[in-house]
From TrEMBL:
Keywords: Cell cycle, Cell division, Chromosome, DNA condensation, Mitosis, Nucleus
Family per record: Belongs to the CND1 (condensin subunit 1) family.
Coiled coil start-end: none
Gene (UniProt): cnd1
Name of this protein: Condensin complex subunit 1
Length: 1287
C-alpha cells in the first residue's frame, strides 16, 4: 500500500526506495527512450497503470535521474504524467458523480501521481541539466527566484529551461487541479490527514512556482495558480495558511508584492475571500517597519498596498482605521504608500453613485491627510503626495472646494529644497490647470474677461436687491437657533466670503419677497457669481506661481525645466495672463545644447532633450495647423503667430528667437506658404498697416533667412521697394531690420548642421556687389534721412553694416556719406573737389571752424564716423584673413614670388591694402584691377607675420593719422566734445560723442594711449549713466584690442561696480565677467569687489555675480587662489561689508573649495597665519567663521588646525571666535568617528582649545561641551537620512 506521507518524508531525507535497478544516467539513448516510452504508453492506455510496480519504478527512476535524461524525453515524460493525471481526475469525477461506486479506489493512484509530479517538477526546476544534447536556452535562462536556487544559481541551465513546453505542461496541471479541488475529496480518502497531505503537495508546488520570477510574469500561469489557491481557501478552509504564505512572500520576494494584491483581489471578488483580505491587512497594520534595518519588507508591503488600493479599494476601506497608523511609520516608503492608497481610495469614493454624508466626510478626511503630508520630513513622501494630487484631480471628480487649498500647497512646494519635489509640484500645477473646472467662456482664464463677467453679474444682483423693498430692510430673524445656523453657513463658505470681500462684490441676499421667476434668476446669478469668484481666485493663484516658474526655467536640473515648459505651454493654451512671458523666457533655452558633446554624455543628452522639448513646444503653440481651418486660413494663423512673437521682445529675446526660428526653418517645420505670407504682410500697401505688423514680418523674415538665403534673393526688389523705400523712411525700424536682412546676401558663413539645401554643411562664399547696385542708393538715402527720429541711429548702424558687408568698395560710399553729413554742420568740413576715384578714406579738408552748429546734425556726424571707424577695423581684419588664406592656398606661386625684393613687397602691400580698404571684394581675376592683383599676390606670397604687420601699420598709423584720412579729421573733434561735455547741453550728442571716441580708441593704440586718461575721467565724473556705462563697455573693448594699456589701469575697471546706477553696475559686471572668464584680464586682488555684488540690492546684479563665480570655479583653482584677497577686501578697509553679508558671501564661495581635501588643508594653514597679522576683533571673527565653513574630514586638516593653535589662542577670549572653533571640533568629530588616529588627535586639540580658552579669559578650564553628544547624535541621524535619500 502506497503511503504518500512516508514517501514524501523519504524523498526529503534522500532515502526513497526504488524497486528497479535501471538508471537513465549512463544508459544508452535508445534504451532510455524505449524504457520511458514503454511506461508512458501504459499510462496512455490506462491512467490506473500508475499503480503497476514496474511502471511506477520506471517513472521514479526517471524522476531521480532527470538531469541526465535527454530534454526531449523529459518533455515527453512530463507530458504523459500530466495527461495521465488529467485522465485520473476525470475518472474520479465520474466515480463521485455515479452512485454505487467506491471513490476511495482512486486514492492510491492520485497519491502516486502527486508524488511523481512533485519529484519531477522540483527536480527539474532546481537541478542543472547534464544532457550533452541540450538545445540553446531560451528566455528561462535568466530566471531568478527559488526555482533557480541550488546549482542552477551559478548560471547553468536547469532541466526546466531546456525541456520544451515545460511551462505549458505546468499550466495544464494547475488547470486540472482546479477541477479536482472542486470535487468532494473527503469521499476519496478515508481520513482528513491523507487528503490534506495530497492537497499539500500541490499547494507547495504552487508556492514554489510563485517564487519563480519567470512564472510570475506569465499571466495565464499566474491566473491558474491563483484560482487554485482561492479554491483551496474556499473549499478547505485554509485561511491562515494562505495568509502566512502571502505575508512571507511580501517579506522575501519583491516580484510577488503586486502579484499578492492580485491574489487578494481575486479571492475577495470571486471567491468570497473577505476574511483573507481582512487578515492580511490586519497583519500588515500590526507591523512596525524601519527603512534602516529592513529595506525589502517596507518596499514590498508598500507596493502591495498601493496595488490593492487600485484593484480592490473596497477591501482596503474596511481596514483603513488600522492601516492609517503607517502614516507615522519610521519608514518613509510606508508613508508614501499610505498617501498613494488614500489617493486611490478618494477616487473610489468620489466615483460612487450614491454620495452619502459618510462618504463625503470620509473624502474630506482623506484630503485633510493629503494636505498634512505636504509637510512630511522626507522629500520622497512630499513628492509622492504631489503625484497623488495629480491623479486625484485628473479623475472625473473635480473637487472644486478642495482645489484652492491644494493649489496653495503645491505652489509652496515650488520652493522646496528637493529637486524631485519641485519637479512634481510643477507637474501637479500643470495638471490642475489642464483639469480646471471653469469650462464656461471656452475654458479661457483671462483675468480681465472674468472680472468683467463678475462685475456684470454683481451689478445685476445689486440692481435686483435695490428693486426689491424687502431686501436691505428685513428684520433680523427671531427664530431660535438662527444665529447658530448663520455661523455654520459662515464656516462652510469662509473662503467664498473672503473672495467676495476682496472683489468688493455684494453679498448674497435672501430670495424672500421675489416672484418665482425673479428668485430663480437671482439664484442662477448667485451661482454664476460664485463661479467667477472661484475662477478669478484660481487665476490669481496661477499668476503667483508663474513668478516662481519663471525662475525654475533657469534651473540646472533639466527635468524641472521641461516640466516648467509644459506648464507654460498649457497656460498659453488657456490664455492665462503672464504665461506669454514664460514662453519668451523659454526661447533662451535654445542655447542649452552643449557643443561637441558626445552621445554618451548624460548632460549632453539632457541638454538635447531640453532643446527638443523647446522646439516641440513652439511647434505645438505656433506652427501646428488646425483641423477646423483651411490651408489658407492655417497659413494666415501661423503667420500671425510668428509675427506676434516679436511684439515687445527685448534684444536678448529676439536673438534667442532667431536661433529658434532658424532651427525650425532648417528642420522644415516652417513651410514656403508661410514665408510667402510673411512677404505679403511686409509688402502690403493697399491700406495702412499697423507698424507692428510690418516690423514683425521683416524681423521674422530676417530670422528665417539665416537658414535659407533664398528668402532674400528670390524677391530682393520687395525689400528695396518697402524697407529702403517710402515705408522704410516712414518707419525707420522697418528700415533697420530690412538692412539686417540684406546683410545675409554678403555674409560668409558656414551652414549650421541641419541647414536646408543640398549643400548643407558646406561653407557659403561671401558675395559682394558693385557700388552701382540700387541697394546702396537705398542705404545711402536711409543714412541721409533728415527726420529727427531716435530710431535713425540703429537704422544708420545697420545701413553702414550692410554697406561694408555687401559693397566691393564700401569706403568710397562711406566718404560720400561723411561729406554730405559734414556739409550739414556748417563750416565744420569743407567739401573737397577730388574726384570720386580717389582713395576711399583720403579727402582734403580743413580744420573745423569754431561756430555754433545744430546738435542733431553734429550727433549724426559723430555717430557715423564712429561706426565707420569700427567697420574699417573689421574690413582690415577680413582682408588680412583673406590674404593669409590665399597664401596657404597658393603654395606653388609663393615660391616664385619669394624672389621679389622685400622692399617691393612691402610697398606694394601697403598700396594694395589701402586701396582694398575701400574695396572689400578681393577677386583677383577682375580685369579692371590687374595692378592690384599683382600687388595682392605679392603680399600673399610673403610670410603671415609680414601680412599682419602691414595691416597693423595701416590700422595704427594711417586710419587716424594719415594725411588724407577722413577719420583723422574727426579725432580732435571728438576729443574736444568729450573734454567739454558741460558746454554741450545736448544729452544725445554727449552720449554718442563718447561712444565714437571709444570706437576711435579701438583703432590705434597711439590714439588710445593719448586719450585713455580722458576716458577714465569720464568714467568717474560723467553725470549721465549712459556715458558711464558706455565707457565701461569701451574699456572692455580696449582691453581686448590693447591689453597692455588696460593692464596698467585695471583697477579702474572695477570702479563702476559701486556706481549708484544699477544699469552701470550690471554693464560693468557683464564686461568684467567676459574679460576674466576669457583670460583677457588677469585678476590681481580685485575679486573682492566682484564678490560684493553677490549682496547687491538689485537681484539681477546679484544673480549675475553668482553666475560669474560659478563659472570661475570651473577654471584652475581660480576661487581658491584668490580667496585670501577676497576675505581681506570684504573684511578690511572703509568698503568692508557688514558681518551678515560677509557670512552669506563666504558660505557661497566656500562651496567651491570645501570638497577638495588638499585645498582645505592649505586654506586652514593660511587662515591660521592671518590671525598673527591682525588684532582687529572683527577680522578675527571673520577668519574664524571662514575656518568653520571648512569640512575638516581628514587627519591632516586637524593636524594643521592643531599646529596653528598658537596663532589664534590669544583670540579665543572672543566668544564668537571660540564658538566657531568649538563648532569645528564638533564637525570634525562626526567625520572622524571611524578613524582612531584622527579621533585621538581631535581629543588632543579639544583639550588644548579649552586650555587656551581658559587662559585667554582668565577662567578655569571649561569641561567638554555638554551639547557635543547631542550634536553627534544629530549628525548620525542626518547621515541615516542621507542614506535613505540615496536609497
Amino acid at each position: 500500500m502506497f503511503n504518500l506521507h512516508e514517501q514524501l518524508l523519504g524523498l526529503q531525507e534522500g532515502e526513497t526506495e526504488i524497486g528497479s535497478a535501471f538508471s537513465f544516467d549512463g544508459a544508452d539513448g535508445a534504451v532510455a527512450k524505449r524504457t520511458l516510452h514503454a511506461a508512458t504508453d501504459r499510462l496512455v492506455a490506462s491512467s490506473e497503470s500508475i499503480n503497476d510496480s514496474e511502471t511506477f519504478d520506471t517513472l521514479m527512476c526517471f524522476a531521480r535521474d532527470l538531469p541526465a535524461v535527454d530534454p526531449k524525453l523529459v518533455a515527453r515524460g512530463l507530458d504523459m504524467l500530466v495527461a495521465g493525471f488529467e485522465s485520473q481526475i476525470k475518472q474520479v469525477a465520474a466515480t463521485l458523480a455515479a452512485s454505487g461506486h467506491d471513490p476511495t479506489q482512486h486514492a492510491e493512484a492520485l497519491d502516486r501521481y502527486a508524488f511523481l509530479l512533485q519529484w519531477v517538477i522540483e527536480r527539474g526546476e532546481s537541478s542543472p541539466t547534464q544532457a550533452r544534447a541540450a538545445p540553446p536556452v531560451g528566455k528561462g535562462r535568466k530566471r531568478r527566484g527559488a526555482g533557480a536556487a541550488g546549482p542552477a544559481g551559478s548560471g547553468a541551465s536547469t532541466v526546466a529551461d531546456v525541456a520544451a513546453g515545460w511551462k505549458g505542461r505546468l499550466f495544464d496541471l494547475y488547470f486540472a487541479l482546479q477541477q479536482l479541488m472542486q470535487l468532494p475529496l473527503g469521499r476519496v480518502w478515508n481520513s482528513v490527514p491523507e487528503r490534506d497531505t495530497f492537497i499539500g503537495v500541490f499547494t507547495r508546488l504552487a508556492h514554489k512556482a510563485m517564487e519563480n520570477a519567470a512564472y510570475a510574469r506569465d499571466g495565464d500561469l499566474q491566473a491558474a495558480l491563483f484560482n487554485l489557491l482561492c479554491i483551496w481557501l474556499q473549499n478547505y478552509n485554509r485561511l491562515y495558511g494562505l495568509v502566512t504564505m502571502i505575508t512571507q512572500n511580501l517579506q522575501h520576494y519583491e516580484h510577488l508584492s503586486e502579484s499578492m494584491a492580485e491574489l487578494v483581489r481575486l479571492a475577495y471578488e470571486k471567491y468570497d475571500g473577505t476574511q483573507l483580505a481582512d487578515e492580511v491587512l490586519r497583519d500588515i497594520a500590526g507591523k512596525a517597519f524601519s527603512s534602516v534595518h529592513d529595506k525589502a519588507g517596507p518596499k514590498n508591503t508598500a507596493r502591495f498596498l498601493v496595488r490593492l488600493s487600485q484593484l480592490a479599494p473596497k477591501a482596503l476601506l474596511r481596514q483603513m482605521g488600522l492601516l492609517i497608523r503607517h502614516l507615522d511609520s519610521e519608514a518613509h516608503i510606508m508613508r508614501s504608500a499610505m498617501a498613494d492608497v488614500i489617493g486611490h481610495l478618494t477616487l473610489f469614493l468620489a466615483a460612487q453613485e450614491e454620495q452619502t454624508e459618510i462618504t463625503k466626510n470620509q473624502i474630506g478626511e482623506y484630503f485633510d491627510i493629503i494636505e498634512q503630508r505636504f509637510q512630511d520630513a522626507h522629500f520622497l513622501v512630499r513628492a509622492k503626495v504631489l503625484q497623488v494630487c495629480q491623479f486625484v484631480c485628473s479623475g472625473p471628480a473635480k473637487f472644486p472646494k478642495r482645489r484652492p487649498k491644494l493649489i496653495a500647497l503645491i505652489i509652496g512646494r515650488l520652493e522646496d529644497k528637493a529637486t524631485n519635489v519641485r519637479k512634481h509640484a510643477i507637474r501637479a500645477l500643470t495638471v490642475m490647470l489642464e483639469t480646471h473646472p471653469f469650462s464656461l467662456d471656452g475654458a479661457e482664464l483671462r483675468a480681465e474677461k472674468l472680472e468683467q463677467s463678475l462685475d456684470k453679474i454683481t451689478a445685476e444682483l445689486e440692481h435686483m436687491a435695490s428693486a426689491t423693498p424687502a431686501q436691505g430692510k428685513q428684520p433680523a430673524p427671531e427664530r431660535e437657533g438662527a444665529d447658530a445656523d448663520k455661523d455654520e453657513d459662515a464656516d462652510k463658505d469662509e473662503d467664498e466670503d473672503e473672495d467676495a470681500d476682496k472683489d468688493g462684490s455684494a453679498p448674497d441676499f435672501d430670495n424672500a419677497g421675489l416672484s418665482p421667476e425673479t428668485a430663480a434668476r437671482a439664484m442662477h446669478l448667485q451661482f454664476q457669481q460664485r463661479y467667477y469668484r472661484d475662477a478669478l481666485h484660481f487665476v490669481y493663484q496661477l499668476q503667483e506661481a508663474q513668478a516662481l516658474l519663471l525662475q525654475l526655467l533657469g534651473s540646472t536640473n533639466k527635468s524641472e525645466v521641461m516640466e516648467a515648459m509644459d506648464y507654460f505651454v498649457a497656460a498659453v493654451r488657456f490664455r492665462v495672463d503672464g504665461a506669454q512671458e514664460g514662453i519668451r523666457r523659454m526661447s533662451h533655452l535654445v542655447w542649452t545644447a552643449p557643443q561637441g558633446s558626445g552621445a554618451g554624455d548624460g548632460a549632453a543628452e539632457e541638454a538635447r532633450g531640453v532643446r527638443t522639448k523647446l522646439l516641440e513646444s513652439y511647434t505645438q503653440l505656433y506652427l501646428t495647423p488646425s483641423e477646423r481651418l483651411s490651408d489658407a486660413e492655417n497659413t494666415s494663423r501661423i503667420t500671425r503667430n510668428l509675427i506676434s512673437l516679436t511684439f515687445g521682445a527685448t534684444l536678448a529675446e529676439l536673438t534667442s528667437l532667431e536661433e529658434l526660428l532658424r532651427t525650425l526653418m532648417a528642420e522644415g517645420r516652417i513651410g514656403a506658404a508661410v514665408v510667402d505670407k510673411l512677404r505679403s504682410v511686409y509688402g502690403y500697401t493697399k491700406q495702412r498697416l499697423p507698424p507692428a505688423q510690418r516690423r514683425g514680418a521683416i524681423i521674422v523674415l530676417g530670422m528665417l533667412s539665416q537658414a535659407s538665403r533664398a528668402i532674400v534673393t528670390d524677391d530682393i526688389d520687395l525689400y528695396l521697394r518697402i524697407g529702403l523705400g517710402k515705408y522704410g523712411h516712414e518707419d525707420l525700424v522697418v528700415a533697420k531690420y530690412t538692412c539686417m536682412v540684406l546683410q545675409c546676401l554678403g555674409s560668409a558663413r558656414t551652414r549650421r548642421p541641419g541647414a536646408a539645401g543640398p549643400d548643407a554643411g558646406e561653407e557659403e562664399e561671401a558675395k559682394r556687389l558693385p557700388m552701382s547696385s540700387p541697394i546702396f542708393d537705398g542705404l545711402q538715402r536711409i543714412l541721409e534721412e533728415p527726420r529727427r527720429d531716435p530710431e535713425w541711429f540703429p537704422a544708420a548702424e545697420q545701413a553702414l553694416n550692410a554697406i561694408y558687408t555687401l559693397g566691393d568698395r564700401p569706403g568710397a560710399l562711406a566718404v560720400r556719406i561723411v561729406r554730405a553729413q559734414a556739409q550739414l554742420v556748417q563750416g565744420l568740413l569743407q567739401a573737397p573737389d577730388s574726384a570720386e576715384d580717389s582713395a576711399a578714406m583720403d579727402v582734403d579738408g580743413a580744420a573745423p571752424a569754431p561756430r555754433v552748429v545744430d546738435p542733431w546734425d553734429l550727433t549724426r556726424l559723430v555717430f557715423i564716423v564712429g561706426h565707420i571707424a569700427i567697420k574699417e577695423i573689421v574690413l582690415l581684419e577680413s582682408i588680412e584673413a583673406e590674404l593669409k588664406r590665399r597664401k596657404s592656398d597658393e603654395e606653388p606661386k609663393r615660391k616664385k614670388r619669394a624672389s621679389l625684393g622685400a622692399n617691393g613687397r612691402a610697398a606694394g602691400g601697403r598700396r594694395a591694402a589701402r586701396r582694398r580698404a575701400g574695396s572689400s571684394e578681393m577677386e583677383v581675376d577682375s580685369a579692371s584691377d590687374d595692378d592690384d592683383d599683382d600687388e595682392l599676390n605679392q603680399v600673399a606670397g610673403s610670410t603671415e607675420d609680414e601680412v599682419g604687420d602691414i595691416i597693423s601699420a595701416i590700422r595704427e598709423r594711417e586710419l587716424l593719422f594719415g594725411g588724407r584720412s577722413a577719420l583723422a579729421l574727426f579725432g580732435p573733434l571728438l576729443v574736444h566734445i568729450c573734454r567739454n561735455l558741460g558746454r554741450f547741453g545736448d544729452r544725445l550728442l554727449t552720449v554718442h560723442a563718447t561712444a565714437a571716441l571709444a570706437k576711435f580708441m579701438c583703432v590705434s593704440s597711439t590714439f588710445c594711449e593719448e586719450n585713455l586718461p580722458l576716458l577714465l575721467a569720464l568714467l568717474g565724473r560723467a553725470k549721465s549713466p549712459a556715458i558711464r556705462a558706455n565707457v565701461a563697455i569701451a574699456l572692455g573693448d580696449i582691453a581686448v584690442c590693447f591689453n597692455n594699456l588696460i593692464g596698467e589701469n585695471v583697477q579702474y575697471l572695477y570702479g563702476p561696480l559701486h556706481d549708484a546706477d544699477a544699469r552701470v553696475k550690471k554693464t560693468t559686471l557683464m564686461v568684467l565677467t567676459h574679460l576674466i572668464l576669457n583670460g583677457m584680464v588677469k585678476v590681481k586682488g580685485q575679486l573682492g569687489e566682484m564678490a560684493k555684488c553677490l549682496e547687491d540690492k538689485d537681484q539681477r546684479v546679484a544673480d549675475m555675480a553668482r553666475l560669474f563665480f560659478t563659472e570661475l570655479s570651473t577654471k584652475d583653482n581660480a576661487v581658491y587662489n584668490n580667496l585670501p584677497d577676497i576675505i581681506s577686501s570684504l573684511s578690511m578697509g572703509a568698503n568692508a561689508v557688514n558681518e551678515e553679508s560677509f557670512a552669506r558671501i563666504m558660505k557661497f564661495l566656500f562651496d567651491f573649495i570645501k570638497e577638495r581635501d588638499r585645498q582645505t588643508d592649505n586654506v586652514v594653514e593660511k587662515l591660521c597665519q592671518r590671525f598673527r597679522n591682525t588684532t582687529d576683533a572683527r577680522q578675527c571673527r571673520d577668519i574664524a567663521f571662514c575656518m568653520a565653513l571648512l569640512p575638516f574630514k581628514s587627519e591632516r586638516s586637524i593636524r594643521r588646525l592643531l599646529d596653528g593653535l598658537p596663532a589664534y589662542q590669544d583670540k579665543l577670549a572672543d566668544e564668537a571666535v571660540y564658538k566657531h572653533f568649538a563648532d569645528i571640533a564638533a564637525k570634525a568629530r562626526t567625520h572622524t568617528a571611524q578613524k582612531p588616529d584622527a579621533k585621538a588627535l581631535l581629543d588632543e586639540y579639544e583639550a588644548k582649545l579649552r586650555e587656551a580658552r581658559a587662559k585667554a579669559t582668565g577662567e578655569d578650564e571649561e569641561p567638554p561641551a555638554a551639547s557635543q553628544r547631542s550634536q553627534e547624535g544629530e549628525c548620525e541621524m542626518e547621515e541615516e537620512e542621507e542614506e535613505e535619500e540615496d536609497l
